Amino acid sequence: MSGWMHHLLIVPIALPLVSGALLMVYDERRQFLKGVINLISALTTLYVAIRLLQFADTSATGVYLLGNWPAPFGIVLVVDRLSALMLVLTGVLASAALIFSLARWHKAGAHFHSLFQFLLMGVNGAFLTGDLFNLFVFFEVMLAASYGLALHGSGVQRVSAGLHYIAINLAASFLFLIGVSLIYGVTGTLNMADLAVRIPATAGDERLLLEAGAAILGIAFLVKAGMWPLSFWLLGAYPAAAAPVAASFAILSKVGVYVLLRLSPLLFGEKAGASAGFGSVVLLVGGMATIAFGMIGVLASQAMGRMASYSLLVSSGTLLAATGLSDAGVTGGALFYLVSSTLTISAFFLLIELVERGQSPAANIIAVTAEAFGDEEEEKEKPDDGSGSAFPGTFAILGVCFAGCALLLSGLPPLSGFIAKLSMLVAVLAPPGPGVAAGIPLAGWIFTALLILSGLAALLAMSRIGIRMFWAPVDASVPRVLVVEIVPVILLLSLTIALAVQGGPAMRYMQETARAVHAPVQYVHDVLSAPRARRAPAREAAR
Amino acid sequence: MEVLLAIAIGTLCGSGVWLLLRPRTYQVIIGLSLISYAVNLFIFSMGRLRSDAPAVLTGQTGTLADHTDPVPQALVLTAIVIGFATTALFLVVLLASRGLTGTDHVDGQER
Question: What are the UniProt keywords, alphabetically (chain B) (predicted)?
Answer without folding.
Answer: Cell membrane, Membrane, Transmembrane, Transmembrane helix
